[in-house]
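Researcher: I'd like a structural prediction for the single chain below. Treat it as a standalone chain; there are no partners to consider.
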Amino acid sequence: MLQSVKRNFYTLMGKKLFQPITSPKLKALGIKVTKEFPAANSCVWSTRWLNEWTIHQSGRFLTVVEAEASATESVFYFLKDANYKNVFLNPTEDIIEKYIYEQEETIIVKTLLTKAPIQQQKHLSVPTLEKILVDLFIDKKLYVPFQGGELINIFNTVYKNYGINITKMLRYAKRRGKGEVMIEFITKNTLLKELVD
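Model: Treating it as a single chain, here is the predicted structure.
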């Protein structure tokens, strides 16, 4: 079986594909959002997934719910009305510093960029590995526990264990306005530089 690593470049499948294990709680949340807003693209994931790749194991987690711009605010109020606790909509840096990591579990509702790389997992959508890596790199304030040496370790551990499509990843980074900065980070700090050359 061939696996795409970048445009017009393939490798024999040697690394596993990213298929995250969704907890019953996360799955229920994702299905509720999908059923309530069937016309809006959305995805859900948890920073619990990152513990597989980090040196320091976090005890406080974010559940991230992303929905396209027209539905983001509605999703936020829907979750509040459904009695979900600690729900924040596109939190500012000040809110992140004061409240986000004070709780064991917090739900962040944010805007899903059009054409963001997501994948279907049974009845819900989750981000691809490429999307998670780009978001961790760009949204530094939101994902503050996973920056610095931890971020480099995440990139390297992911690369050693999973197949990564570098073209998909850099295309998404470019859509977020950080394509060149991300290439620089990858080539200077990570094992993924082999895919960029």
